[in-house]
Every structure is written in structure tokens, then in C-alpha cells.
Amino acid sequence: MRRSVFAAWIATLALSGLLIGSARADNYPSHPITVIVPFAAGGPSDAMMRILGERMKTTLGEAILIENVTGAGGSIGVGRAVRSPADGYTISFGHLGTHVANGAVYKLGYDLVADLDPVVLLPSNPMIIVSKNAVPARTLSELLAWLKSSPTPAAAGTAGAGSGSHIAGLAFESAAGVKLQYVPYRGTGPALNDLVAGQIDLIVDQTSNSIQQVRAGNIRAYAITDSKRVDSAPDVPTVDEAGLPGFHMTLWSGLWVPKDTPKDIIATLNAAAVTAWADPVVRFRLADIGMGVVPRDQQTPEGLGALQKVDAEKWWPIIRNWGSRRNKRAHLYPEL
Ligand code: MLT
Fold first, then answer.
1. Residues near ligand 1 with C-beta < 6 Å?
2. Residue 132 Cα to ligand 1 middle (Å)
3. Which of 1, 127, 175, 336 gives a 20 to 30 Å CA spacing to 65?
4. 95 touches 45 (CB < 8 A)
5. Mutation test of ligand 1: which of 209, 289, 319 has the most ligand atoms closer than 8 Å to its C-beta?
6. Phi, then psi, of 122 in degrees rounded to 5
């Protein structure tokens, strides 16, 4: 008798868990959702997520709260998301740096592909080469000549080793045959403030971050790392036009959730994000800061997952090679 009562009790427990689970997925979201942005407030990642979050709230009926958890090229914030419950209430914002490059730079303690489920591929950002106004160069060729003739490496701001601005800096060094000294910040928002103040020499930055300061004349832009100019900065040439042909680099971003988050919650989040940037107001705000919207068929969880895998295969060997070549200058790249 007692065994059957116990069995019935276990069955009830299992059923209630199932019901609660399906109920939770059914009435998701029932309270605000937190997006962990692994870089400082006011920077490009934060700005993009705030624009999208505002519009996603309309679709989801619950607020999107931004939590800036910074440090170690974004790997600390991503780690926090990985360790969060798989219930759709904690989302990891990231990009090529945090969700690909960091896998080759740090011993993370989590697996960027296996421990997270992709939700949606977000708008992309071409990079822009910018310097403080005091740099004695007006064109990219003059900048390269200055960098090569300078007795000490120029101070280049980044959001930490493995971040988008760091990987772009390494790619720029490699493409241009120059040397840079990296100055890590908790995001390119604070790095840009120091560039405007003349504390550092340059940043290979996300266009969306620097474009307003370029327009205001507070910093100087040399080239967009793409084959086409951005409409919102028509005077800034492409690297092909400016004398560094083929140095194309666009930073894609995305949203992920802890693995095993219910599929229909992922679908709900994907739909809210896709609806957000289909909104003409959101599109205008993104385009105004130089951001491009990815094609509809890539906006799926699978689209992001596939891109992450392709870029891991492409970038990990390159980054590891940079690491091995730079060991003799380890003081500049302690993490690599
Ligand atoms: C930021 O928001 O600060 C950037 O995404 C950092 C970077 O990766 O360069």
C-alpha cells in the first residue's frame, strides 16, 4: 500500500513539474527579462541593446532590463549568463569577440557553443579606424606612415583582450604591418571618452560607437573596414579606397540563452527581436549610427549558431597564431 502511495506522490510531483514547466513556457514572460551586456554602459553593445530592448518590450509585454557585467573582454558577463537558470529570464548579449574570439584567448570555464543556445543574430557593425585629433595624419596612408615611423607603438584603446576592438586591432596590425600597444577598458564607451580627451591615440572601433564624435569633429576617421561606405558617414572612405584594400571586418552581434532553455521561449524571444528591427523607427536609429540589418533568413537561432561555428573555425587559428607570434612581446598581450 505505502509503495503505491509513494509512487502516486512521485507521479504527481513529476506531473506538476511538467505542468509548471509548460505553464512557464506558456505564459512566458510573466516578469521582466534581464539582458547581460558584458561591456560598459554607453558603449556600442549597450546602445544597440537599449534600442532593441525598448521595442522588444512592446512585443513581449515585459521590460528588458540591461545589466552591464564587465571585464576580461566580456567573458565575465557571458559566464554569468551561462550559469543562470534556463528559464528565458536571463539573456546573454554578445558578438564575434565575446562568443568566438574569447574561446581562443581565455581558459573560460564554460563552452561558448555547448553551454549556450543561440536566439537571434542582431544587426552588424562595420569597424572604423579613428584617432585623436592631435595625430599628425589626415589620410589612412599618412596614419600608417606615422605609425611605422613612431619610435614607440601607438596607444590603442580596446574593451579588453578578445573584445571586438582588440581583435580588430590585431587584424589591423597584421593587415597594415604596424605595431600597437593596447590599453584595455571595460568597454569602448569609456575608451572613446579617452580618445576624445587625447589620452590614447586610436581605436579600431565599431562605427556605431565613434560616428557621433566623428561628425562632431572631436576625433578623426580614416576608413571604414568594408567594401562600401556607410550612408551615415558618406565622407569616410572605405579601406579599399584609402589604401588598405581587403581589410574588411564587420562585427556581428547576437543573443543567446543558457542551454536547455525551452525551444518555444527561444522562438518567442527571436520573434520579439526580429519584430523590433523590422520597425522603421528602430531601423532608422540603427542606420543613423552606421549599423546594417542582416538578411531575414539569417535572423534565426540556427543562423546565429551556424555563423558562430564558421567564425570559430576561421578566427581561432588566426588568434592562436597571433598569440604564439606575440609571446616575445608578452608584456603587451598578457592574455594571448
Ligand atoms: C562595447 O560595447 O564596449 C564593445 O562591444 C566592446 C568591444 O568588443 O570592442
1. 39, 43-46, 97, 159, 163-165, 187-189
2. 19
3. 127
4. yes
5. 209
6. -95, 175
Asked if 256 and 281 count as a contact pair (C-beta separation under 8 A), the reply is no
Cα(4) to centroid(ligand 1), Å: 58
Q: Which atom of ligand 1 is nearest to the CA of 187?
A: 3
Distance from the CA of 19 to the center of ligand 1, in angstroms? 41
Distance 260 CA to ligand 1 centre (A): 27
Nearest CA residue ID for atom 7, ligand 1: 164
- Print pLDDT tens along the chain (336 aa): 556 776 776 666 555 555 555 555 668 999 999 999 999 999 999 999 999 999 999 999 999 999 999 999 999 999 999 999 999 999 999 999 999 999 999 999 999 999 999 999 998 899 999 999 999 999 999 999 999 999 999 999 999 999 999 999 999 999 999 999 999 999 999 999 999 999 999 999 999 999 999 999 999 999 999 999 998 899 999 999 999 999 999 999 999 999 999 999 999 999 999 999 889 999 988 888 888 878 888 899 999 999 999 999 999 988 888 777 655 544 444 444
Q: Which atom of ligand 1 is nearest to the CA of 191?
A: 3
* Ligand 1 atom nearest to 46, measured from its CA: 2
Angle, CA of 213, 195 and 43, to the nearest 5°: 65
Q: How far is the CA of 164 from the centre of ligand 1 (A)?
A: 6
Beta bridge partners of 202: 131, 156
Of all protein residues, the one whose alpha carbon is nearest to atom 2 of ligand 1 is 45
DSSP letters spanning 133-175: TTSS-SSHHHHHHHHHH-SS-EEEEESSTTSHHHHHHHHHHHH
| H or E element that contains 119 | strand 116-132
Cα gap 39→136, rounded to integer Å: 31
CA pair distance 18, 63, nearest whole angstrom:
26
The answer to whether the CB of 298 falls within 8 A of the CB of 307 is yes
Give all strands (DSSP E) within 185-336, no chain letters: 202-206, 219-224, 250-258
